[in-house]
Amino acid sequence: EPSIDPVRFIASRPRAVHWPWAGTQDAHVVGAVRGEAYFDPETDEGILEIEGLAPNAPTIEQYQLWIFDRERDERYPVDGGVFDVRQTGKVVIPVRARLGVAQPVMFAVTVERPGGAVVSDRRIALVARP
What we know:
Helix content is 5%, strand content 47%. The protein is built from one helix and nine strands, in the order H-E-E-E-E-E-E-E-E-E. The protein is globular. The model has no long low-confidence stretch (mean pLDDT 94).
């Protein structure tokens, strides 16, 4: 598991990127969106520091991270895994990409059915890009 301290994460990973989140008009975005996506293409590990997502009911829906890679077709972003938001306020979630990511260009958080999707219908709640 990657350390969930963003400062330590960045300090120990020279190739890591960290970009701020921006919310969409999706109903799951509540209040001010803050935080960043941290990701290291060297280890395919990352940390999502997020504030502004509504808590979800895991039996009904889950959030899923998608990582867009410059070297892959943008129709097929890399699955970064599913996660739950248990309470309002800041959450910190460690993530690991399912496939290697050479050059991340954007991160997106979608709302999916429990267990996530293989191909998302792109109900996007948050995006992070340089």
